[in-house]
Amino acid sequence: MDYQYLAQAQTIDNYTLSSMMDDYGNDVWNYAYFLTKSTEQADELSQEVFIRAYSGIAHFRGECSLKTWLLTITRNTTFTYRKSRFFRSSLWGETLPIHTEQVNASQGEMKPEKWVHPSAEAEAISREHVHEIWDIIMALPDKFRELLLLHLKYELTTGEIAEMLGISAGTVKSRLSRAKAKVRKQWEERSE
């Protein structure tokens, strides 16, 4: 569905909201999960994001994609939630599973898995490597971890990430390069 008309909208109907949720619900939920590491909190935050989008559609100016706008709302809502007393007192810390992507350690890129039928042993080893690499990514400082997720998983451009995070495009490029180098170095150290 083309959402360009929303840049002029003051309100949206339930059908449009439902379409937005269908098209971007997984992205919003996954990003909320990445930021909180909790399925319950990601569920709550995703609902809150779409409530805010529904009631605040007049603030969407069309200067970025709808996806970027929704991810920005997700980020801001999560950071507000993190400051709340409930969040600070809750217990969370499960790791984020990745079952549908592999990370190419030499290039620091995520790619969809190929449609092949590996042996059970090869599949177990592959999953172990993916989890190890994801553990490395999750251990990075927030500023690197978040950039990798936005760039690799959500395929946002450098400009979109810069606008979303309120930093320059040059800073985004620099941090992405350093983040990939850190992942590559730690992976090589573990593999020795």
UniProtKB/TrEMBL annotation:
Q: Which residues form a coiled coil?
A: none
Keywords in alphabetical order: Sigma factor, Transcription, Transcription regulation
Q: Has keyword Transferase?
A: no
Q: Where is the RNA polymerase sigma factor 70 region 4 type domain?
A: 132-182
- Gene Ontology annotations of biological process type: DNA-templated transcription initiation
Which Gene3D superfamilies did the record assign? 1.10.1740.10, Winged helix-like DNA-binding domain superfamily/Winged helix DNA-binding domain (1.10.10.10)
Q: What GO molecular functions are on record for this protein?
A: DNA binding; sigma factor activity
Record-annotated RNA polymerase sigma-70 region domain positions? 21-84
Q: Which family does it belong to?
A: Belongs to the sigma-70 factor family. ECF subfamily.
Q: Which PANTHER family match?
A: RNA POLYMERASE ECF-TYPE SIGMA FACTO, RNA POLYMERASE SIGMA-70 FACTOR ECF SUBFAMILY
What is the recorded name of this protein? RNA polymerase sigma-70 factor (ECF subfamily)
